[in-house]
Structure formats: C-alpha cells, structure tokens
Write a structure and sequence with these properties.
It is built from seven helices and 16 strands. It has 311 residues and is an alpha+beta fold. It folds into three domains: 129 residues, Cathepsin B, Chain A (Alpha-Beta Complex), CATH 3.90.70.10; 99 residues, Roll (Ubiquitin-like (UB roll)), CATH 3.10.20; 51 residues, no CATH class. The protein is globular and about 75 Å long. It is an enzyme of class 3 (hydrolase).
Length: 311
C-alpha cells in the first residue's frame, strides 16, 4: 500500500489541490452525496491509480435516542477484512412445521454483547419471515435467556447456546410466571388474545390495577413442544471461513459499546449507536488485506485458513 500511495502521488495530474468543503448528507439522496464525495476526491486526486484501484464505502450510523441517521462516503484503496473470530457451537430450533433442529458451528466475535451476536446467527441461517432469534445459554441444568446487554467472552468461556426462532409479536404490558400446557395454545389464532385468556385465569384484578401504574413489562412467549427433544438433529451447519464470509463480517451491523460511544451531533451526547459499512462503488482491481494480527490482548498472529477463489 505504501508503494501504491507513492505511485498515486507521482502520477497525480492535480498539482495544486483545491480546498472543497464537504456538506452534510442531511436529507439528500445517497446518489447525490456519493457523487459529490467522488467528484471532490477526483478534483484532488486524478490518476490512473485512482481509476483502477479506488472505490467508495458507505458508512451509516444510527442514534437510538433521537433516531438521527448519519451517512458518510469514503474513498478506499484496499479493504481490511476482520479475521479475529471464534468458532462456537450452537443449536438452532427452527419455527417451521418440521420442528427442525440444526446443530451448527458458526464464527462469532471473541467478545461481544448479545445484541452484536444476533447478526452472526443471521449470517449462518436466516430465520423464517417474521421471526427473530432468542438466544439462551445452558448453565448446568438451567436454561437462561440472554439479555441484549449481556457480554459474552467466547475466548475464555465455553457456552452452550440455543437459538429459538420466535415469531415477532406486538409489545404487551403484563408479566407472569404461570404456564399452561400445550393444548391451550393454537398458533392459528391471534397470539395476543390467547395470552390474555391464559393470564386472566391467574391474575388478581385489584393487584393488576395497582401494579399497572408502576411498571411496564414485555411478554416473551416461546412455544417449544416436547417433540423437539425427542428428535435427532436433522441437519448440521458448519460455516466455512472463506472470502465471502469475511466480506459479510465486514458489512455486519455493529452496536458500539459504552466504552467507545459515538457523539451524536443532534443529541449533543455520546450514544451507543449502531454502525454499518456497505460497498457503494467497487474498483476494477480490488485489493483485500486480511487482518491477521490482533490489536487487543493477546496480541498475536491469527493463523486461520481463509478459503478464496483463484479463478
């Protein structure tokens, strides 16, 4: 890359680089902003190196507090793809009619929150339409549903992860620990109505009235028939660390940690925003750099084999 940068400077047709102020994206379309960024860059860097080796990346940052969306486009000469991932075991319970279980081995970050872990399950297997994953871990004989803010350290601990495909439902305002048998649930009926019918049999109206003004909860209903546990694994999924997966990891949405927040110019506060890279313009010749050295402890070389096409 040092040689390429030197060639770019030597072959640059622009001797006196003009100063061009870059405007905020605001309500303009992506096409307009991207064209403006590329035109501005070409006015300062015009060479055959840029024509052949340079592309454009789109960065999207979303503030969860004020819903502000920040967009930026950046020229690039090479892609640095992450390799610091850990292969972990998980079992996915599918929501289809086959009551299918999939034993899988997927690549995940060595340390991340559950919120950042979910996209990696989506890369391994996209859930059915309208479904989302609920992740649980087995501690001894207990199954615990993980919360979005839970931090998982896959390099130091061995987790027994279960991913349940759960249909998306509207938020509710009741919490209960009472359960009923499977016959009380009919998937063809409205889920909310059935839940209320089940809960009403166990709730005291006066107590509900008193508690309703204090706290608001969400109901999470996971229907796992016993037949799940009578079946053998019907399928196995083993992710392969190849160039395609590395590119998907690069463009996976990430929720920033509390230790490295993003400053929102609208809120005027640091926020745990989500950020995502996308490829907007690819060059004729794409240079890929595999990040084989960890920047955090332990600082060592990553020797994972990466499969890539040679034709």
């Amino acid at each position: 890359m040092v040689l390429l940068d030197a060639l770019q400077e030597d072959l640059n047709k622009v001797q006196l680089k003009p100063y061009i102020e870059l405007k905020d994206a605001d309500s303009r379309t992506d096409d307009d902003v991207a064209d403006e960024v590329w035109t501005r860059y070409k006015k300062r860097n015009d060479s055959v190196i840029v024509d052949l080796f340079y592309g454009l990346l789109k960065l999207t940052v979303f503030c969860p507090a004020c819903k502000y969306i920040f967009r930026a486009f950046d020229p690039f000469a090479s892609l640095s793809l992450p390799l610091d991932v850990v292969l972990t075991n998980a079992i996915i319970f599918c929501s289809n009619d086959k009551l299918q279980r999939i034993r899988c081995r997927i690549y995940v970050p060595p340390r991340c929150s559950l919120e950042n872990l979910l996209p990696y399950f989506n890369l391994a297997r996209q859930p059915d339409d309208g479904c989302k994953y609920v992740i649980a871990n087995i501690y001894g004989h207990y199954l615990r549903i993980l919360e979005p803010e839970d931090i998982l350290n896959f390099r130091e601990w061995s987790y027994k992860l279960f991913a349940f495909e759960v249909p998306s439902v509207e938020d509710s305002t009741v919490r209960t620990t009472n359960c009923t048998n499977e016959s009380n649930v009919n998937p063809s009926e409205t889920l909310c109505d059935k839940v209320l019918q089940v809960l009403n049999a166990h709730l005291d109206k006066e107590e509900v009235k008193e508690q309703a003004e204090k706290e608001v909860y969400k109901i999470l209903v996971i229907r796992v028939p016993s037949r799940f546990f009578e079946l053998n694994h019907t399928d196995e999924l083993h992710q392969k660390l190849d160039l395609d997966l590395c590119l998907k990891l690069f463009t996976t949405k990430e929720i920033l940690s509390a230790q490295s927040p993003w400053y929102c110019k609208k809120c005027k506060e640091p926020r745990q925003a989500s950020k995502k890279f996308d490829f907007w313009r690819l060059p004729e010749v794409l240079i890929i750099h595999l990040k084989r050295f960890r920047t955090m402890f332990p600082m060592e070389k990553i020797n994972e084999f990466v499969d890539f096409p040679v034709e």
